[in-house]
Amino acid sequence: xxxxxxxxxxxxxxxxxxxxxxxxxxxxxxxxxxxxxxxxxxxxxxxxxxxxxxxxxxxxxxxxxxxxxxxxxxxxxxxxxxxxxxxxxxxxxxxxxxxxxxxxxxxxxxxxxxxxxxxxxxxxxxxxxxxxxxxxxxxxxxxxxxxxxxxxxxxxxxxxxxxxxxxxxxxxxxxxxxxxxxxxxxxxxxxxxxxxxxxxxxxxxxxxxxxxxxxxxxxxxxxxxxxxxxxxxxxxxxxxxxxxxxxxxxxxxxxxxxxxxxxxxxxxxxxxxxxxxxxxx
Length: 281
What we know:
By secondary structure, the chain is an alpha+beta fold.
């Protein structure tokens, strides 16, 4: 439209949008979420460091037993403390726990081939198997060696945490013990009793021992080689935990008095004096 002479030209305003970089999207949200998560983890760690030992154990045990069904002696809190296997289904976990505990013993590598853990119909069997020189007990008597004492003490600490009962067995080889007044029956029972005393002195409860058995040479580990040193051993059996109180002891009594076993099991016998003659049993 033509502008008449003397009139003012119209004012034209041109708006330009400033150029911006690419669209950021929601990337900042992810970074912020990571920051918040890290801060939360930091505060949890700081809280745990200032918490009591009981709280620390409760939190740690949750990740081992999220359902809170763990049971420990002396504790009313599910999942509190170190969770150890106590049932038949979890006995393999107890086996791993004891194996890890024994590895902390100094020079365990020298005796690991003489320790065998087996899950049996009675429970978890831990066998301390002798060699020709006498690994865990002095040759010919019931006096434990330093290594035997140390291993039994470590096992006592771990087993004390369980409500399960324990059977302790002593075995010898078929080599006759010299002299008529002291035989392989007494030797096997004395070794089992010596193991019991050491374990109870190192934490295992007195009411945790269901039976102490002496089998002499009636349950050879290597029947085809009766005089083999591997037949000389002390066995600890952590029994399966039963829902019926007292049934563990009843089953142990039934096993010991089964047909053909009554003549084999000797009662615990303690001797204050040892024969002068020593045999390699």
